[in-house]
Amino acid sequence: VRKNPCAPSEDDRARPARQQEVLRAIGAQAKSPGTFFRLPWVSWQAPKALRTDMKGLALMGLFADIATGNSGGTDVLEGTCCDLEGDIQVSPGTRAEAVDKLLNGS
């Protein structure tokens, strides 16, 4: 499990929830009426503010997902720590339930 020296209380288990919160906030801002009028300026500034190795099509897909995604709560699988390589383990049953919830909404 990787440690975060900038936030010692946060490790790999807390990071996905924080990232989902950030993406949900970006999506909320992208859908706001004010953003529509500022869109040319926002589009010009976004590449400077965003550091990523994704190229054009992947970024367009990400922003399309953000703009059209739901605003539901954060849902991160909880696992048990750790195997011999230090990876967090999630049981097959828990994974199957998460896939069913993702695909069927149940």
Report on the architecture of this protein.
There is one protein chain. By secondary structure, the protein is mainly alpha-helical. The chain folds into two domains: 1-74; 76-106, no CATH class. 56% of the residues lie in helices and 0% in strands. The protein is built from four helices and no strands. The longest helix has 17 residues, at 33-49. The chain is globular, with a radius of gyration of 17 Å. The two termini are 30 Å apart. The model has no long low-confidence stretch (mean pLDDT 74).
Give a short synopsis of this structure.
56% of the residues lie in helices and 0% in strands. By secondary structure, it is mostly helical.
By DSSP, the count of extended strands is 0
What would the average pLDDT be, to the nearest integer? Answer: 74
Q: Unreliable runs, pLDDT <50, ≥5 residues?
A: none
**What's the story with the biggest beta sheet?**
none
Taken in chain order, the helices and strands follow as HHHH
Number of domains: 2
Tell me the number of helical segments per DSSP (H or I, 4 or more residues long). 4
Range of helix content:
55-70%
**Percentage of residues in strands:** under 5%
- Evaluate the radius of gyration: 17 Å
Structural class: mainly alpha
> How would you describe the shape?
globular
- Report, as a whole number of angstroms, the end-to-end distance: 30 Å
